[in-house]
Amino acid sequence: MNIKSHFKFSRQQRSGIFLLLLLIISIQIFYHFVLPKLMDNNPEFNTKDSTISTFIDQIDSLKAVELEKRKPKIYPFNPNFISDHKGYALGMTNQEIDRLLAFRKQNKWINSVNQFQSVTKVSDSLLAKISPYFKFPDWVTNPKPKQNNFSQSFSNLPKTESQKLDLNSATAEQLQKVYGIGPSYSQRIIKYRHKINGFHSFIELQEVYGLTPEVIQNIKNNFTIRTPRVITKINLNTATKDQLVTIKYIDYEVAYNIIEERTLRDGFKSIDELTKVNGFPVNKIQIIKLSLRLD
């Protein structure tokens, strides 16, 4: 059986292929050798080339401006409260974020740019990029000189329960007698007290912006909570997702993860086991524990 080859061409086809190759070679020669000489010798070509280059530069410039606008803006923030999501957005690695969270879990505070790098081990380039946005409390950036005439009526030494005043009824003037509390902090404490309808625990003082553990201890030395706010605690091992999200710092995602972990563990044996839940705000565990119970 005769099979006609696909690679056999007629005389007319071979001529056509030859002319096509000749045309391609001619175009290449013109593009690479003739056209550049024409552009060099003809000012009109140079002018057009220059105009096009300028136009392209303008487009690139507008693109750069638009890309800059689309970049997420960074606002001043306290580096002590960097979350996993915030740290990732800033360019920190998981290890650097974990170091910061472990440091804060010890109730320690970052008080300077150098201390932030010492704790997290971030690179100099990243530190230079994000440190201009660090915002520390006033008592860190503008520390007040210690006064020798500090009132001894509210000393830092612990008092008996009968000697202490009720924190839930204390006035601004009484709070300001505690070392480390001025007019600004006393107003913040009272404002937060009104917001939550009274303190239930001294732990809640951590929610007042700027109060250090030392100042909170000074408050505990001079005040008590005789009229604590009533909190209806939720049973951690039977709570539904909708019940859990009523607790401050627990959103639907964390609530879902809590229930999933609870199922895997066949119930929690300790509230502290919540720190093993994926996405749980570990640095807020003490505040969250106020609203939970284990039956």
Automatic annotation (TrEMBL):
Pfam families: HHH_3 (PF12836). Keywords: Membrane, Transmembrane, Transmembrane helix. InterPro entries: Endo/Exo/Phosphatase_dom_1, RuvA_2-like. The chain crosses the membrane at residues 16-34. This is Helix-hairpin-helix domain-containing protein. It comes from Olleya sediminilitoris. The lineage of its organism: Bacteria, Pseudomonadati, Bacteroidota, Flavobacteriia, Flavobacteriales.
